[in-house]
Description:
The structure holds two protein chains of two kinds.
Chain A: E1 7-16, E2 19-29, E3 34-38, H1 45-53, E4 60-65, E5 68-69, H2 73-82, E6 83-86, H3 100-110, H4 115-129, H5 144-156, E7 162-166, H6 174-190, E8 195-200, H7 203-206, E9 211-216, E10 219-224, H8 226-233, H9 238-245, H10 248-251, E11 271-280, E12 283-293, E13 298-302, H11 309-317, E14 324-329, E15 332-333, H12 339-344, E16 345-348, H13 360-370, H14 375-388, H15 404-416, E17 422-425, H16 434-451, E18 454-459, H17 462-465, E19 470-475, E20 478-483, H18 485-491, H19 497-508, H20 537-552, H21 555-575, E21 583-589, H22 594-604, E22 609-611, H23 618-626, E23 632-636, H24 640-646, E24 651-657, H25 661-687, E25 697-703, H26 710-741, H27 744-749, H28 754-784, H29 792-816, H30 820-837, H31 850-857, H32 860-872, H33 878-902
Parallel strand pairs in A: 3-8, 3-9, 6-7, 7-8, 13-18, 13-19, 16-17, 17-18, 21-22, 21-23
Antiparallel strand pairs in A: 1-2, 1-4, 4-5, 9-10, 11-12, 11-14, 14-15, 19-20, 23-24
Chain B: H1 2-20, H2 23-33, H3 35-43, E1 53-57, H4 62-69, E2 80-81, H5 87-92, E3 98-102, H6 106-111, E4 117-123, H7 127-150, E5 161-167, H8 174-205, H9 207-212, H10 218-248, H11 257-280, H12 285-301, H13 314-320, H14 324-336, H15 342-371
Parallel strand pairs in B: 1-2, 1-3
Antiparallel strand pairs in B: 3-4
Helix pairs in contact in B: 1-10, 2-3, 2-8, 3-8, 8-10, 8-11, 8-12, 8-14, 10-11, 11-14, 11-15, 14-15
Organism (chain B): Tritonibacter litoralis
GO molecular function (chain B): ABC-type transporter activity
Subcellular location (chain B): Cell membrane
Amino acid sequence: MTPPPVASLSSVTHRYGETSALSDVTLDIPAGCMAGLIGPDGVGKSTLLALIAGVRKLQTGGATVLGGDITARDHLRACNHRIAYMPQGLGRNLYPTLSVYENLDFFGRLFGQSEAERRTRITNLLAATGLDPFPDRPAGKLSGGMKQKLSLCSALIHDPDLVILDEPTTGVDPLSRQQFWDLIDHIREERPAMSVIVATAYMEEAERFDWLAAMNAGEVISTGLPTEIRNAAGQPTLEKAFIAMLPEADRQGHRIVEVPPRQPVSGPPAIEAKGLTCHFGDFTAVDHVEFQIEPGEIFGFLGSNGCGKTTTMKMLTGLQKASEGKALLFGEALNPDDMATRQRVGYMSQAFSLYGELTVRQNLELHARLYQLPIETRAERVAQMLHDFDLAEDADKRPDGLPLGIRQRLQLAVAVIHAPEVLILDEPTSGVDPVARDGFWQHLIKLSRDEGVTIFVSTHFMNEAERCDRISLMHAGKVLAIGTPAELARSKGTDDLEEAFVGYLREAAGDAGGTASQRPATKLPERQQKPDRLFDIARLWAFARRESIEILRDPMRLAFAFLGPVILMLTFGYGISFDVQDLPFAVFDRDQSAESRELMESFSGSPYFAERPAAASVIELDARMKTSEFVVAVEVPPGFGKSLLRGDQPEVRVAVDGAMPFRAETTRGYLQGLAASYMSDQIERLYGHAFDPSAASVETRFRYNQAFKSVFAMIPSVIMLMLVLIPAMMAAMGVVREKETGSIANFRSTPVTRTEFILGKQLPYVVIAMLSFASLIIVSYGVFGVVVKGSVLALLVGTLLYVLATTGFGVLVSTFTRTQVAATFAAAVISIIPAVNFSGLLVPVSSLSGGGRLIGLAFPSSWYQQISVGTFTKGLGLPELWLNHAALAGFVALFIAVSVLALNKQEA
Amino acid sequence: MWQWLTNVFRLGLKELNSLRADPVLILLIVYVFSFAVYSVATGAKLEVSNASVAYVDQDRSALTGRILGAILPPEFNPPQEISADEIESVMNSGKFVFVLSFPPSFEADVLNGLKPQVQLNVDATAMAQAGNGSVFLQQIIRAEVAKFVSGDDTATTLPIDLVVRTKFNPNLNSVWFSSVMQIINNITILSVLLTGAALIREREHGTIEHLLVMPVTPSEIMVAKIWANGLAIVVAAILSLWIVVQTVLEVPIAGSIPLFVSGAVLYLASVTGLGILLATFTTSMPQFGLLSLPVLVIMNLLSGSTTPMESMPVWLQNVMQLSPSTHFVAFSQAILYRGAGLDIVWPDMAVMVALGAVFFFIALKRFRVTMATVH
């Protein structure tokens, strides 16, 4: 009797906007075995796996996983405990700055394992995967193969019943790949009930699976045992069988790739590497690499991701400076600044690197111009390229919307538009479907054999490597062997290149049989059944703890969090000042009497004015004022002294620079005060007694800030601003970062709840904001001499509530944004407007009218402004301010509640 | 040299194409130079306007009524009456910035020559209004009392007549100042962000590597980015000056616009150079954002476009001479408000060129090293 399928889909259709990823898929995946999904990139494999894992929401159709409906909430929660999901991409669900141990520890905590249980499990898993020598190495510094093993460990930490692996071995070297599969076989032997579903683009790998589903364009085109699929298509390999099964339209133009023999050419090697070495810090990416490539040869470079292929290629193009050794092109040392060499070389980098905003034709034209093709032949060459590379149909489309295979052809066309003698191609066919890959190789072979172009190409695919004239095997920065594919295979006593490569890798690792896979794995402890709580402080803590470690290891964010507020406070403290003093003034004294000099002395004696040299004419006075040498110009008329003594009310003209209205307004106030005091002095001298011209006096009391200095008002407001701007930006970035790097998958596939996730992410930023508040207090006192006059308790409680609200606001912003740039930008822009304009920073709240007042009230800043200014400057405490505290608490609850509701546990 | 120029031209055209294809950036530029300029110029006023006044009137006489009646918009909101024991709480809660309190028998004391005191309580945490607002209130009280006593509306008996004339902005309209300064601040922000982001985008997409293996030099790539993004910003800034500032806000421009534009071009060259320099210190867009935020805030707030330079400590004034924004603000204020000519502003232009050259050459030195490094 066959057991029921582990997952069964019925009529599942999934769309992303206009594009359809899965169309009407009905599929039963058998339990207790290793089931594989095969097919090139973009056929819907990842979507299918994500739906089964419950990380994506089902759109239409039904899915039964582990005996229950995955759309039912309770069953989904149960599945989170029983399914392990490893997303596509090398170490994509890992945290690169965390060590191997810390990564696994984090996953253990998510499943509520105790300290002791975690330690046992992690030790066992590390021993089983051969990672035990490096528990303290950061995940980001592991090789591709090790990353994937660590990723697998993190998937297995909770003894799942179903393991879902999305292209776990893409970009990994063959030895690690073999070890990876051995490891999975080994674990399955120990836990025979466990089901595994794997997606892969390597058809060779799929030969060892128990059951297969081949996919193309969102549809399952064939299922069954590998042998059944091969036999049904009547082909010797799965890859060939796959091509044979494709619909007629997709196979069109596919021809078997044949490589005609090469005619040897005399002359120096086209490319020569002599002891080429590259260090990054203490890491050696490329270690004394030597090879020679003959003119017209197709030279293959085989190796895993991160083994130094790309760096070597960059050194040969001059993009990367070699730390040691030499690169020669046509017998001459490579000079990266020599434009003539660049004309002889074409380069295609790993990532797609054409301008998406230009059309196919415009891209070709731009490159033709930059390569200085003569105007007469330029158009012809572009047309020829469009023809040769079958791009004519898509000439006026933008590359962004084209299939990967066509984009890669365009890249190749761009790289050869200037008819280079050497072509350097960095993994040009990664992720491309088999038909397009073969088509691409037809072009390469034509370039090499018909046009004599030397081609240096790196690849993961063994069947591509076999087409090269010679290949070099590279691993960990070193070249292991160079030779024709046949030679290399023979020297390891096999006719299979992959096996030969594995042999070389073993030899390099100094190990004949392979260690990791042979290691006996100690039995894992029994899974402890714990009640599933909807809120578990341990899971919250797991996120908070991990986030803190990550921030502490990111110098850029750490510096921003702690230095940013202090720098900005100094800037604001000095920059926004309403204190107007030392106003430069100059005088044109046409009287030169004792009285006029006395008038001027009353100016220069005032702290508000600073004297500049006197002017000799009105024209001079005007001209100098234009240069902004001074902002007040005083003109004393002739006979001023005499008419003053006669009591004739002489006229004194004063010009004030009005370019800055606030300064000018204040200056006018000063002038009036100055004139009044000068006059009462004069009157006192003339009449011998003090005289007050006014019938009533005004006693002005500047409350809270007797010295009337800007800093006492500005600093509390700046604290308000800093504690919204920076915590909101950082919290927003913290959550969206996970979306961007892909580690959000861990939130979706594990039992952690939305509240735990959001509070866990927020907590570290609250702590950082409180620490940053402490540093702001120190700067306020130390630099500006501002102290807290009122209740410290009211300030502390208020600040805590405020940063809870502002970080909550950041988290809220992050639930609506996709990229870190958008999140930080949105958090900054949205918070700056109410905080700066409508919270009393510049304009008192009591002067705001309707709309502005409401915007201010609808944001926490205006409430905290009252607390900050109240406790710092006004000397108030909780009895006067409690309403503001209550309002802030309301914002905290609101922001967190909305964030939790807006965050989807499943992806759409 | 010819080749250098054609390459710079070609790459610049491509840059403009990329900009044209990015609706978000276009929208940002349009928003920043239209709505943002308008709303900041008309919204954030630093002069006394709508200031809130409360009073305690223990006299309730004709004189106090006349004084309160003279406290008028737009400077002041209509005064509100409160009782004497409320003074403390309304000021603590920030409900009123000014509280006047008239003593009992105020009018009688004035008429009897007893010189009574009016108490004016000012919330000195509301800096923008407290200083000038209290001067205005004192003037209103003095004038009303003098008129009341003499029965003459033009009564002044002062030994000298101080005629204060305000040059360059006779009505002290803050829109004149803030609209133009806002354009300047926005030029700074956009120049740094646009060029820096353009470079980082090419780096993230891998297209920069592509350029570097072609017969194109880093200086060509950098100058192309500078001219293309600079052109877009300068065109937007001129349109903004013309449409928003001159036409909509009706701000008169005193000096020569061509001179201002040529200075703006020099300024753009130097700040776009700074944008590229900052971009060479970061590897991703988020990092670039974190780095440029404090730089931009410092450059804008301390340049003299918000508060006058002489209000800052001397050491800080000296440090800020290293920022091109300080010189551009001085340059723009001289031309746009005071109608200054080349003879007055050339030193600021020279410093902008020199600072721009320094940024450019440091960026150029770092360019190849940082742009192609694998990480």
